[in-house]
Amino acid sequence: MALSEIKKNAEHKMNASLEALKHNLAKVRTGRANPQLLDTIQVEYWGSMVPMSQVANLTLLDARTIGVAPWEKGMGAKIEKAIRESDLGLNPSSQGDLIRVPIPAMTEERRKELTKVVRAEGEHAKVAVRNLRRDANEAVKKLVKDKLASEDDERRSTDEIQKLTDRMIAEIDKVVAAKEQDLMAF
């Protein structure tokens, strides 16, 4: 593997870690409603479990209410049951064809707990990025040991990998800070 491939591979994996962090933080509930909150809920549909978004239209009715409109008549009760049994602590109510999912206001204590969860997710992402940096640096050292790259190339590559790592960690910090601010906003 060439030096450029090692750097490209490391950057790709670091970006994947950042995207995974964003995906995980989207699940952390803030005070306002967000249709993505229901994306993790699975509903039984014709004998198999599918994501909520594949059996219903998820909309935002107002700042604290998500509307779920099933695409088929018989799915309402199953969707309502799936939301109620999820670990999100939501209590949906049916109004004809529309299921309203009110998002309860969060207490200050709950906000602080969620802030700790967000910081922990950020720390996990940073550890993943640092592990990727270590792996990339080891791959570069192996190339030098096998005499496929010079020591100057090693120094240059290590510096570039470190700059990439610093940039990713700064981006992770930015994402975590934005989520914390979002949590404390209401």
TrEMBL record:
<comment type="function">
    <text>Responsible for the release of ribosomes from messenger RNA at the termination of protein biosynthesis. May increase the efficiency of translation by recycling ribosomes from one round of translation to another.</text>
</comment>
<dbReference type="GO" id="GO:0002184">
    <property type="term" value="P:cytoplasmic translational termination"/>
</dbReference>
<dbReference type="GO" id="GO:0005829">
    <property type="term" value="C:cytosol"/>
</dbReference>
<feature type="domain" description="Ribosome recycling factor">
    <location>
        <begin position="21"/>
        <end position="184"/>
    </location>
</feature>
<protein>
    <recommendedName>
        <fullName>Ribosome-recycling factor</fullName>
    </recommendedName>
</protein>
<dbReference type="Pfam" id="PF01765">
    <property type="entry name" value="RRF"/>
</dbReference>
<keyword id="KW-0963">Cytoplasm</keyword>
<dbReference type="InterPro" id="IPR023584">
    <property type="entry name" value="Ribosome_recyc_fac_dom"/>
</dbReference>
<dbReference type="InterPro" id="IPR002661">
    <property type="entry name" value="Ribosome_recyc_fac"/>
</dbReference>
<dbReference type="InterPro" id="IPR036191">
    <property type="entry name" value="RRF_sf"/>
</dbReference>
<comment type="similarity">
    <text>Belongs to the RRF family.</text>
</comment>
<dbReference type="GO" id="GO:0043023">
    <property type="term" value="F:ribosomal large subunit binding"/>
</dbReference>
<keyword id="KW-0648">Protein biosynthesis</keyword>
